[in-house]
Design a protein that fits this description.
It is a single chain. This protein is of the alpha+beta class and 114 residues long. It has a domain of 68 residues. It has five helices and four strands; from the N terminus they run H-E-E-H-H-E-E-H-H. The chain has a four-stranded antiparallel β-sheet. Helix 2 runs antiparallel to helix 3 and helix 3 packs across helix 4. It is globular.
Length: 114
């Protein structure tokens, strides 16, 4: 069984750092199942079914700090929207690029259709 310290260290190790086109250093992490459940709760029943809104919210909620200033996990719709506003188009685009699934290697992509 993992201790809380081991879980915390694993979370830190899973973080990525990126720089958006405005030069801001943004730290991110992939959301866990519990993080996503809490996001659905913060979004509410209607917005949790809006895939476009939820996608943008997921990107924003993946941010843990901007320029070394910690970002608390949003717990309300207003906090999520505030974070999206703070990140803006450039921050959201950088986070989306960093969290995008990797494309399969060229050999796999070629042979997948055969």
């Amino acid at each position: 069984m993992e201790s809380p310290t081991h879980r915390h260290l694993a979370t830190i190790a899973a973080m990525q750092s990126l720089t958006d086109s405005e030069g801001r250093r943004i730290n991110i992490r992939r959301l866990s199942a519990l993080d996503k459940l809490r996001l659905f709760k913060a979004a509410g029943p209607i917005l949790a079914q809006n895939h476009l809104w939820l996608g943008m919210a997921t990107l924003a909620c993946s941010v843990t700090s901007i320029d070394d200033i910690p970002i608390p996990t949003p717990t309300t719709e207003a906090q999520i929207e505030s974070l999206v506003s703070r990140l803006g188009d450039t921050g959201i685009a950088a986070v989306a690029l960093a969290l995008a699934p990797e494309a399969p290697p060229v050999d796999q992509a070629i042979h997948a259709g055969n």
